[in-house]
Amino acid sequence: MAQTTLLAIVNPLSGTASVQKKQQWIEFLLKIAVDAGFTPEARFTTHPGHATELATDAVRQGIRRVVIIGGDGTMNETARALLNTQTALGIVPVGSGNGLARHLKLPLNPKKAIERAIHGRPVVIDSGRINEHAFFCTTGIGFDAYVAQEFARQPIRGLPTYIRTTYRAFWNYQPATYEIDGKPQSLFSLTVANAGQFGNNAWIAPHANVADGLLDVCLLKPFPRSAVGLLAWRLFNKTLDQSNYLTVRPARSVVVKGAGPLLIHVDGEPLLLDTDTATVQVVPSSLLVIR
Ligand SMILES: Nc1ncnc2c1ncn2[C@@H]1O[C@H](COP(=O)(O)OP(=O)(O)OP(=O)(O)O)[C@@H](O)[C@H]1O
């Protein structure tokens, strides 16, 4: 049997599309990949972390292109196995947020995204690291992480659930004080952005560049409830950096210390650290992505 040269990793649970729909996208992908000269193979993930296992195997086998059909969680699990390798990541964004794909201006239509993932060329981008965890889009502490935790508890994913969860979280959430590079600061949230948005065109760092060797450290101060409408408008209008409540600082690294074990998110997936301190660092030119 011919050696596989392209692996598709498909999360059956990403976003709101049915498994039958994803099966149709797989068939389309296999067909155009063969037409383009690849020997493709597709695998559904069966458990959290499976995408990392499949991508690690793909690298070991010398496969040079791994295409995900999924959201930012699947993207992260796959991309972390491709870090500093010659294997490029193709993205077919069918998740709830699709932050990295939107930042990179990849097609959001699945068939067009598949064509891009097969015919596009690899470019090199930076990634970030929060303690030992890799991220490619954003990581965060405070409100972002709280929303990620609440969203992960919902039985149904997709944008409407995300909006409902964020709205409810806003009323329950209390800002906290953190030490940022040794300086105490009361914050609503701290986001460290490699790409500029959380997903769904919610731009926390409008000028972020995935290939500049820097991360954008975004500090959002606590704000009165009366300001939420304008802040939300600015978030989606790509002008949040013009708000007096937000400071964006490009940096290679930042150290955050909280009052106890830190709840963070990594590309939208929540994670409770077993330490009160997080060191966030850029890893320049560490991932090949198909554009
Ligand atoms: N078969 C599976 N069963 C349960 N969980 C899975 C399975 N396969 C993957 N996962 C988990 O599903 C999580 C969410 O997937 P993904 O990010 O692709 O979709 P999403 O959350 O809808 O999109 P986005 O991250 O863009 O909001 C991943 O972090 C992964 O660990």
From TrEMBL:
GO terms for molecular function: ATP binding; kinase activity. InterPro entries: ATP-NAD_kinase_N, Diacylglycerol_kinase_cat_dom, Lipid_Phosphate_FormReg, NAD/diacylglycerol_kinase_sf, YegS/DAGK_C. PROSITE patterns: DAGK. One of its GO terms (cellular component) is plasma membrane. Residues 1-133 form the DAGKc domain. SMART domains: DAGKc (SM00046). Keywords: ATP-binding, Kinase, Nucleotide-binding, Transferase. The keyword Kinase applies. The keyword RNA-binding does not apply. PANTHER family: LIPID KINASE YEGS, SPHINGOSINE KINASE. This is Diacylglycerol kinase. It comes from Larkinella punicea. The lineage of its organism: Bacteria, Pseudomonadati, Bacteroidota, Cytophagia, Cytophagales.
